């Protein structure tokens, strides 16, 4: 249902380094930077697998208004790799990889706060040993 979405980041280059690392295990990368002449010089870039879906917009985030966004992983191993990469890139733990059976029996997710305090998650809904 979601076509694309965006978040504000205080320091685009810091956020880019974080998301480059965190999204690599999920097969996503920075696919597009909006030319500065269209943004008034503000850095705006979109991440995705095939097309930009998750946009970073350099601006001052509103204190106390962080976002929660969950990204689909194709396997539990991808969830694990996302978590490790995000933590290594400066993310803060908000729930290590594991089953969250209170959502459903195969909900396997990991949660990390990005440099701006947004709660990002990788989740796989497939049974263990199966691709999602």
Automatic annotation (TrEMBL):
Residues 1-125 form the VOC domain. Pfam families: Glyoxalase. InterPro entries: Glyas_Bleomycin-R_OHBP_Dase (IPR029068), Glyas_Fos-R_dOase_dom (IPR004360), VOC_core (IPR037523). It comes from the Bacteria. GO terms for molecular function: dioxygenase activity. Keywords: Dioxygenase, Oxidoreductase. This is Putative glyoxalase/bleomycin resistance protein/dioxygenase. SUPFAM superfamilies: Glyoxalase/Bleomycin resistance protein/Dihydroxybiphenyl dioxygenase.
């Amino acid at each position: 249902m979601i076509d694309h979405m965006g978040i504000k980041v205080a320091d685009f280059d810091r956020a880019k380094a974080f998301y480059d690392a965190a999204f690599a295990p999920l097969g996503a990368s920075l696919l597009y930077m909006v030319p500065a002449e269209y943004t008034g010089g503000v850095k705006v870039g979109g991440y995705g697998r095939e097309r930009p879906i998750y946009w970073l917009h350099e601006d001052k985030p509103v204190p106390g208004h962080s976002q929660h966004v969950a990204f689909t992983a194709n396997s539990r191993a991808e969830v694990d790799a996302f978590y490790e990469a995000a933590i290594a890139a400066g993310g803060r733990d908000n729930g290590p990889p594991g089953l969250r059976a209170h959502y459903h029996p195969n909900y396997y997710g990991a949660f990390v706060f990005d440099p701006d305090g947004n709660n990002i998650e990788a989740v796989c809904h497939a049974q263990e040993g199966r691709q999602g």
